Amino acid sequence: LEEEIVRIKALHSLASYDDPTILNVVAAGLKCNSQPIQKASVHTLLKFAEHYHQRRDDIFVIHDIFEILTHLFAQELPSETKKDMIKIMAHLSPHDTVSFLQHNIENGSHILKRDCIRALSLFNEPRLLRSLTRLFSSHDTDIRCAAMEALWHTAKYKTLIKRELHALLSKYVLQPQKLIPVLHTIGALNLKGCTSRVRALISHIDEQIHLTALLTLMRLEDEKSIHQLVETLLRSKMHFEAAAEHIDHALLSEHYLHTFMTALQHEVSERIHHLLLENSAATFAELETDTLETLRHFYRVLRKEKEMVQVNKILRARESTPLTRIHNASTV
């Protein structure tokens, strides 16, 4: 175990090197039977590939890495690790990679198809443009929307894509699973012309559509929906984490982020104030466990480390008591 930890740390440190000789070390890590070492190798290779310009004398190592990645891809690995593998392939030789990506778009895991299409679009080849246009008419909404994102940078398709997305918003209003990828694509392409249509979906009966519509409006920087967005995010830790991930991937302006964070902090502070008043508690230790867990979530949002440490300490102490353990076991 100690040797594995040392090897993982070494692999992570190699990510900052712009030297093709590290590819041999990474290739050895990819061949290793340890999943944590494989994951660290994929992470290092991704960082390296992002700033590495392929050189002719490394062609054999590049091909070797492609072979290892395709072998690992067939194994049971977390989807996030596989997504990183697909990103790496976009930096490898088109000769090897294109047919692999096309195969996985047609036959692979549904959750990875969008990533394969995105990687395919990075190879600037006319024959691939034809493949992407065929996907534009797919019956699978995820594939169809991913193809629109991939073709967006080709000027002649922009008007068609806008028209198609407007039509899909109407067509799938009662089909949440098909509507969600349409909303993601509208956000990804920053189609502000769809703002009022998306805003109308905030009141959708389906909770997932409601949240996705609000997150799409965040990407479109719609300030009118910030208050509703904040209220929805604070309903659960899961909602807030979804938004945090969205913020990381969206290129939001400083003005919008400031407006959003100000509204969020104000609402959280108000809720903490009311929560403590309602419970008339002099200390955290006097509060019910459910109330403490809500407070912990709020303090995490505000990044109040001192208060979080205090709340966590009490919750951990309660979890360790025999009575709590019996109660937890009885509710499973």
Textual characterization of the structure:
Helix 7 (113-121) runs parallel beside helix 9. The protein has helices spanning 2-14, 22-31, 35-50, 59-73, 79-89, 94-107, 113-121, 126-135, 141-151, 158-171, 176-188, 195-199, 207-219, 226-233, 237-249, 254-279, 289-302, 305-319, 322-331. It has 19 helices and no strands. It is mainly alpha-helical and 332 residues long. Mean pLDDT is 82; it is low at 325-332.
Overall pLDDT score: 82
- If helices are DSSP runs of H or I spanning 4 or more residues, what is the number of helices? 19
Please report the total strand number as a whole number.
Answer: 0
Structural class: mainly alpha
Shape: flat
- C-alpha end-to-end distance: 33 Å
Provide the helix percentage. over 70%
- Estimate the strand proportion: under 5%
How many strands, which pairing sense, and closed or not: the largest β-sheet?
none
Assembly form of the protein: single chain
Radius of gyration, CA atoms, in whole angstroms: 24 Å
Properties at a glance:
flat; 19 helices; disordered C terminus; mainly alpha; 332 residues; single chain
Short description:
By secondary structure, the protein is mostly helical.
Please describe the topology of this protein.
Blueprint: H1 2-14, H2 22-31, H3 35-50, H4 59-73, H5 79-89, H6 94-107, H7 113-121, H8 126-135, H9 141-151, H10 158-171, H11 176-188, H12 195-199, H13 207-219, H14 226-233, H15 237-249, H16 254-279, H17 289-302, H18 305-319, H19 322-331
